[in-house]
């Protein structure tokens, strides 16, 4: 789980903001695979089904630079580049993790060093988000099947505007056979109400900074107290979490997610361990 960076006050040009508004208006509804799962688990999770053979997973620094510039250029340029890679039998998962993530980080570095302004970087991140949305059907085409499927609520810290990392994480969870809700929630109270009325196996929270750390700690205390699932697993990730701040311990996470590709399997293994312990106690 990750976020793309922090907001800095810089000069804003008008043209990129106009395009950003257009891009945001294109996709206003939730992901078609984003739905809530209500089920009190009773059976053990089955073994995962087989996957298709992976394509080429090598991604070079030049590839990352090329993708970053394509995202700065236009949505069409970014999609065309990735389509070319797919024709070359590049593995889409590797493109996500080894090209798209570093490209986002590279644009973030250009932003902080004043090579690009706030609006231009924001539009580029929006294009990356749109790129993943366009590639979603292909990415999920060979999704694993779990029965019953575990459920996850994956969200940024309430009030945080960084959503691309959570979207990518949600795609990996869906590909791993999970049922996912990743709709933006406006407040901490909204999160508490949702986990109180709906059953989730995992709450994944992406934290970009410590600006709302006290609020987040209070929210998680209420989540644990009122959750419909008394064994709800709390998984934390994001920029701030990856920096391993000492205050992280106060949030009492069950899991720390540092890689979108590995987080679904890590969470599944943790759930199986919990279920195994529960069965042995009965």
What would you give as the CATH superfamily of the largest domain?
Cobalamin-binding domain
The count of strands amounts to 5
Overall mean confidence score, pLDDT: 80
Strand order of the largest sheet: 2-1-3-4-5
Percent of residues in helices comes to: 40-55%
Order of helices and strands: HHHHHEHEHEHEHEH
Poorly predicted segments? 1-53
At CATH level 3, the topology of the largest domain is Rossmann fold
Q: How many helices in DSSP terms?
A: 10
Largest sheet: 5 strands, parallel
| Gross geometry | globular
> For the CA atoms, what is the radius of gyration?
19 Å
Can you walk through the features of this model?
The protein is an alpha/beta fold and 282 residues long. The chain has two domains: 56-139, Methyltransferase, Methionine Synthase (B12-binding Domains), Chain A, domain 1 (Orthogonal Bundle), CATH 1.10.1240; 151-281, Cobalamin-binding domain (Rossmann fold, 3-Layer(aba) Sandwich). It has ten helices and five strands, in the order H-H-H-H-H-E-H-E-H-E-H-E-H-E-H. The longest helix has 22 residues, at 118-139. The relative contact order is 0.16.
Helix/strand layout:
Layout lengths: L13 H13 L34 H13 L1 H13 L4 H21 L5 H22 L11 E6 L7 H12 L3 E3 L6 H10 L4 E5 L6 H14 L6 E5 L1 H4 L12 E2 L6 H19 L1
Parallel strand pairs: 1-2, 1-3, 3-4, 4-5
Short description:
The chain is α/β, with parallel strands linked by helices and 282 residues long. It has helices at residues 14-26, 61-73, 75-87, 92-112, 118-139, 164-175, 188-197, 213-226, 239-242, 263-281; strands at 151-156, 179-181, 202-206, 233-237, 255-256.
